[in-house]
């Protein structure tokens, strides 16, 4: 059987997950190139939520959400801690009838798949789950005990180990400096080490960097950067007296981070036409910590004052800024491009942990079998032309 040689640029959750799925094919030779460390950069700054029902991903893509969630549960079952699962449960608040309908549909899908879910209108019951919440001006909330959040860095490293066990290669501290193209077809790439590799396919899994990586083949990747500004709050009293669930509002989400609370503006509420929210920036200039704007912390504190007043007096412990890669429709860009053999797996935005497993499964089918899927058709590069 003739081998297919695939080079993957980027060792975050997108690149390692794809590398693993490709390594399941006997005729795949896979090398992942990561300029820093596996599961670092934007993956390390992911909240890691894979909620069974919320508005982060339309219910029409329920199978994508379920495949991701169950992939990580399986990972945890094989080796405890390998996906960093913290089972806190999730509370998704309905602020209007449209959100309510989305939640109820998601609950029905979750229950059909064997998971718990309930839609609660009893406001005393909602406050039992999250004592610090305000139940004014809400219709109800969806709740499940079965989910929580994962750790993107741990997942990436677990996928990397699985890839290597299957014969794949990981090269860290190696930057791709050139993608070799002849007659509009990928032939290989060159690295910062001065090495040259031949490949049948090169896959761009660089997320926020894909705007710049695409330029190596003359491709304008249609993504914007939106600001993922995360703040860590220390609740009054220093320690929560209850298990803080993943909390989802249309405007923001929050979750437990040790004894602190992580809070961030939701990616779907970002305005691509607002230069405070979105632009095209250089991710290499991001600091490890800090770099956040007062606008966002002020916005989030205003939200907390109205919606979760019990923690509004929390102290700010730390913060970080990351960039999300967002196409104009907030859905990923997967598959073939006008450059033959140059494949995209980017634009996951705030949903990388949710979407990467199903996207990688289907991309591996495309690369190894030439087989497309409805998901790849929906999220194809050509839709944005």
TrEMBL record:
**Which classification does the entry list for the species?**
Bacteria, Bacillati, Bacillota, Clostridia, Lachnospirales
* Species of origin: Sellimonas catena
Q: Which residues form the FAD dependent oxidoreductase domain?
A: 6-366
User: InterPro entries attached here?
Assistant: FAD-dep_OxRdtase, FAD/NAD-bd_sf
Under Gene3D superfamilies, the record lists:
D-Amino Acid Oxidase, subunit A, domain 2, FAD/NAD(P)-binding domain
Gene Ontology CC annotations of this record? cytoplasm
* Name the record gives this protein: FAD dependent oxidoreductase domain-containing protein
């Amino acid at each position: 059987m003739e081998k297919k040689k695939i080079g993957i640029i980027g060792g975050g959750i997108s690149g390692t997950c794809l590398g693993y799925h490709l390594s399941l094919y006997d005729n795949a030779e896979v090398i992942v190139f990561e300029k820093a460390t596996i599961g670092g950069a934007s993956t390390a700054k992911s909240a890691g939520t894979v909620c069974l029902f919320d508005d982060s991903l339309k219910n029409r893509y329920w199978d994508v959400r379920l495949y991701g969630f169950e992939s990580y549960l399986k990972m945890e079952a094989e080796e405890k801690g390998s996906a960093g699962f913290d089972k806190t449960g999730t509370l998704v608040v309905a602020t209007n009838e449209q959100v309510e309908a989305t939640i109820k549909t998601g609950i029905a899908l979750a229950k059909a798949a064997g998971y718990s879910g309930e839609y609660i209108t009893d406001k005393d019951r909602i406050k039992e789950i999250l004592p610090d919440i305000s139940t004014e001006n809400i219709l109800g909330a969806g709740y499940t005990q079965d989910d929580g959040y994962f750790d993107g860095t741990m997942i990436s490293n677990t996928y990397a180990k699985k890839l290597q066990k299957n014969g794949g290669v990981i090269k860290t501290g190696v930057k791709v400096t050139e993608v070799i193209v002849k007659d509009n077809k990928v032939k290989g790439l060159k690295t910062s080490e001065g090495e040259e590799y031949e490949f049948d396919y090169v896959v761009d899994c660089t997320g926020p960097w894909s705007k710049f990586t695409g330029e190596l083949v003359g491709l304008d990747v249609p993504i914007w950067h939106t600001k993922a500004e995360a703040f860590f709050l220390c609740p009054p009293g220093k320690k929560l007296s209850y298990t803080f669930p993943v909390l989802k509002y249309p405007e923001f989400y929050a979750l437990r981070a040790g004894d602190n609370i992580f809070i961030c503006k939701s990616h779907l509420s970002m305005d691509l036409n607002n230069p405070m929210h979105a632009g095209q920036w250089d991710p290499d200039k991001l600091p490890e910590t800090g770099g956040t704007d007062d606008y966002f912390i002020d916005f989030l504190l205003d939200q907390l004052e109205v919606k979760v007043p019990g923690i509004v007096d929390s102290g700010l412990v730390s913060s970080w800024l990351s960039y999300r890669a967002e196409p104009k429709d907030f859905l990923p860009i997967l598959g073939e491009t006008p450059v033959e053999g140059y494949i995209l797996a980017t634009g996951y935005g705030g949903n990388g942990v949710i979407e990467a497993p199903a996207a990688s499964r289907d991309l591996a089918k495309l690369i190894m079998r030439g087989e497309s899927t409805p998901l790849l058709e929906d999220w194809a590069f050509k839709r944005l032309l």
